[in-house]
Amino acid sequence: MFGRGEILGHDLMSPYIILRDQARTASIDPSSSVKLSPAKKGASSGKSEENTFSDFLEYVDNLLDRPRHNSSMGLLSPTGTMPGRSTIAEGPQTMKEAIDTAILRSNLTGAANQSANRFEIARSGRRVAVIMLARPSYRLGETMSAVIDFTDSRIPCYSIHISLETSEKVDPAIALRSNASIYRVTKKVHASFSENALFAQKLAFSPTIPPNATPEFITSGVSLEWKLRIEFITPRLTHEDGEETSWDDLLEEISSDDRGVILAAAQRLPAESFEVQVPIRVYGAVSGAPEAPDEQGLPV
Q: Domain coordinates of the chain in residue numbers?
């Protein structure tokens, strides 16, 4: 994963293979007085090449010995004595820091002023609801928050069904089934929520991402995606010539006289449903002991 939180895609057809051993080995006589650390400050040599090599090793030792998690050091002066340090803020040093940075940056508005955590849902050009997420990126084990806002909607919503699910996506070149069939087989619902939305202004959904689930990953053959699938039940729209789109009322007239009109709830309401998929990004979470400074990868 990049420092900015982008997930790397792995090409399964082109694995990383190192054909040449780049390590250098040499036999050392135990009885000799050869030192294993030529970068020691007190070492002296008459050859300029050995001095250059010693300076380089000392430079590398300084880079490895500097604190990696101390954020209180602040910016150093350009005239600082420690080699390799600059006034530019360093990027994330560990996978945990990279994930934290990616989550913080996930709420930033893009170049087209499109928010990644607000989605306006419309039907036939009329607003149905607005889906708002606390943030579009999470870790395993975290509780996400989603709100469905029906304020100023032009088409009423009878009910909604929300599910937090994962599904696999297989490259058509190696897939033996259709995309719809693969989705049915690999679909896994982690949390679901159903609610009557009649006369509701807002509905909230707060599922917890299972800590033992699989985070999002991308390869050239198979990928895993996380999404919120939201199904809206709305009235069936009728289109008449010269009139605006309309739908049946919730109340129907039973009888009327000079004393007034008696209304009762409609026994049948023509309805239709449609669903939307809101993509979310789920990163892995550190488990057990904290991540070692020189450890590659992230335990999940």
A: 102-238+270-283
Rounded to the nearest 5 percent, the helix, strand and coil shares of the chain are 10, 30, 55
Q: Are 278 and 133 in contact (CB under 8 A)?
A: yes
Give the end-to-end CA distance of the chain in Å, rounded to a whole number. Answer: 14
CB-based contact 82:62 (threshold 8 Å): yes
Helix and strand numbers, DSSP H then E, in the chain: 3, 13
Q: Is the pTM of this model over 0.85?
A: no
Q: pLDDT tens across 87-146, in order?
A: 344 566 676 777 777 777 666 665 555 677 888 999 888 899 999 998 888 889 999 999
Name the CATH topology of 102-238+270-283: Immunoglobulin-like (2.60.40)
Predicted confidence (pLDDT) per residue in 152-192, tens digit: 888 889 999 999 999 999 988 888 888 889 999 999 999 99
